[in-house]
Specification:
single chain, alpha+beta, Penicillin binding protein transpeptidase fold, Beta-lactamase, 2 domains, five-stranded mixed beta sheet, five-stranded antiparallel beta sheet, 22 helices, cell shape, cell wall biogenesis/degradation, Penicillin-binding protein
């Protein structure tokens, strides 16, 4: 009895629905009113589609894919082969070119089946309805949602051409394994663009969206292959291809080339995303943390490209150098490499065996800098203010000022020495005397341009001359500051991000930093020559293999808890920090000088 009642209901509903549609098209005034109403109620600008964002190296190679929350890359209509469009039209919606968004005969058939089963078994969805469901609605099975789907489909047909609807559909559908849209599916399963797919591969991909989990090519390859063959037969039956071609395509082997999401250089990518926060915050003037996080998530879901300054070869060398010279599991290291000629951060390693999301020591670890701070806080401010030369004399003897009594390494005492000797052998008492002569506050004023994040008023003490800071500095901060010595006293904050573009290539964000003259060229030239002498005949002799013009400054903190070396060679300024995450003495490896060997291997020509 229920079945008979259902069919009677269909006989009554279908003519009524047809009458509404006919009236909609024939009554001009009413049609305009209906369209206007739909236009007001249905917003086609707010879609649910998100796209995969990409981080690219300086050679445009994709190094990281960011899914928020799904993997999708938009393909324009001309990037999608006509063959696969035909496959979807034949298999999903043969009346696609004729209907106004919904197919009445198909709806009638679906109603009959659903009433018979006392459930919603069939949806009779056109391609346009499927687009409405994927892009604007949800997949909940209900007659309410179905009605909304029909209305959205009708409005889509009034707004877009058939080719535009098909293009949007091909970018909205799900191909399983977090691949949304034909472009992401082609890349994920075959490592190809859609236009590079063979017709056999196109039909294979077209087999998936009908039931993505059932036709998962990785878990159920044979199911997917059988459906592909059915689709090819349907194409032949409807005259889209010849029967012999269908048989040929069925026999072509399908070879999947699936690998995991790209995340090749997590040390660098992790920092690039951190820098993205700074860039968005600065350019959109967002101070609220939650608001900033929301804006970044929105941006990443839109499918942007973050173009970075990463030099892949140099990144590999940097990571390998840290690994090679730190065999002890507990000893960690970080390194940053900057092209000081261009102001680009070209390589970063956040630690041995770094994994995405780990604590990135390159910019998140703040440690005492030891004597590596001397060129910035002591010698450059001194040369800037006094007519001193490298052979000028300075007292390296014992010193006590208001209870502060610094010692030279090993407790050694010296008399009058040249500034060059004091620098290249890293004597402490001369450095403290120089800072006192310059004035602590004046010397720290010189550092303001470098924006050391953890340096505060509490650090304005004489002990800072030898690296005695409350919290310390990060390897990236210190390396960035050192670029001033290779740029004639001009500082331009080094950046990892070159620009951020949308999927069509429009520049959305880029840094607009202005260079600042910190010291005179003559000042930095004196310091630079001292750093070169440090490598050739001072505390950094083990780094001399980098090249004849290399220069830098070592730093060792009390009890050998931290080893530093920051220096330049050619166009590169690199900084290396060695230590344990929980500071402990590393005196056992002091004679090996791993920080110098790592640095040498990174920057040597």
């Amino acid at each position: 009895m229920r079945i008979i009642t259902g069919y009677l209901l269909i006989l009554l509903l279908v003519p009524a629905f047809v009458a509404v549609v006919i009236l909609t098209y024939t009554e001009a005034d009413n049609a305009v009113s209906f369209s206007d109403t739909l236009g007001e109620k249905i917003d086609l600008t707010e879609t649910k589609l998100s796209q995969t964002s990409l981080i690219l190296a300086n050679n445009d190679e994709v190094i990281t894919e960011i899914y928020r929350p799904m993997n999708r890359s938009y393909a324009s209509g001309h990037e999608i082969p006509d063959f696969i469009k035909d496959v979807f039209i034949i298999s999903e919606d043969r009346n696609f070119e004729k209907h106004p968004g919904f197919d009445l005969p198909a709806i009638g058939r679906a109603l009959a089946i659903n009433i018979h089963s006392d459930d919603i078994e069939q949806g009779a969805s056109t391609i346009t309805q499927q687009l409405a469901r994927n892009q604007y609605l949800n997949h909940h099975k209900s007659y309410n949602r179905k009605l909304s789907e029909v209305l959205y489909a009708y409005q889509l047909e009034k707004t877009f051409s058939k080719s535009e609807i098909l293009e949007q559909y091909m970018n909205a559908i799900y191909f399983h394994n977090n691949a949304y849209g034909i472009k992401a599916a082609a890349d994920f399963y075959f490592k190809k663009t859609p236009l590079k797919l063979s017709e056999s591969e196109q039909a294979f991909l077209a087999a998936i969206p009908n039931n993505p989990s059932y036709y998962d090519p990785i878990k159920h390859f044979e199911r997917t292959k059988k459906r592909q063959e059915r689709l090819l037969s349907q194409l032949a039956e409807h005259g889209k291809i010849k029967l012999d071609k269908a048989e040929t395509l069925k026999k072509e082997p399908i070879i999947l080339k699936v690998d995991s999401r790209k995340n090749s250089y997590p040390d660098y990518s992790f920092y690039a995303l951190h820098e993205l926060r700074e860039l968005i915050s600065e350019q959109e003037n967002i101070d609220n943390t939650d608001e900033l996080t929301g804006r970044i998530e929105e941006l990443l879901r839109s499918g942007v490209k973050i173009h970075t300054n990463l030099d892949i070869a140099l990144q590999k060398r940097t990571v390998q150098s840290v690994t090679d010279h730190l065999p002890d599991e507990e000893v960690q290291g970080a390194a940053t490499v900057i092209n000081h000629e261009t102001g680009q951060v070209v390589a970063i390693t956040g630690g041995k065996d770094y994994q995405s999301g780990d604590f990135n020591r390159a910019y998140q670890a703040f440690r005492q800098p030891g004597s590596s701070i001397k060129p910035l806080l002591v010698y450059a401010p001194y040369f800037e203010r006094f007519d001193a030369k490298r052979d000028s004399q300075i007292d390296a003897g014992p010193l006590c000022i208001k209870g502060y009594c610094p010692k030279n390494y090993g407790g050694s005492t010296y008399g009058m020495v040249t500034l060059e000797r004091a620098f290249i052998h890293s004597y402490n008492t001369p450095a403290v005397r120089i800072l006192q002569q310059v004035g602590v506050d004046k010397a720290f004023d010189d550092l303001k341009t470098f924006e050391f994040g953890k340096v505060t008023e509490q650090d304005h003490v004489l002990a800072a001359a030898v690296g005695g800071f409350t919290t310390g500095v990060s390897p990236l901060e210190l390396t960035s500051a050192y670029t001033v010595f290779s740029n004639k006293g001009i500082y331009l904050k080094p950046r990892a991000i070159a620009k951020v573009t949308n999927h069509s290539g429009k520049i959305l964000y880029k840094w607009e930093d202005e260079p600042v003259q910190v010291w005179n060229p003559s000042t930095v030239e004196k310091v630079k020559s001292l750093m070169q002498k440090t490598v050739s005949s001072g505390t950094a002799r083990k780094a001399a293999g980098a090249g004849p013009n290399a220069g830098g400054k070592t730093g060792t903190t009390n009890d050998f808890k931290d080893f530093w070396f920051i220096g330049f060679n050619g166009p590169l300024t690199a900084g290396v920090w060695i230590g344990k995450d929980k500071p402990e003495s590393l005196e056992a490896i002091n004679r090996l000088s791993p920080h110098l060997l790592i640095w040498r291997d990174i920057v040597k020509k």
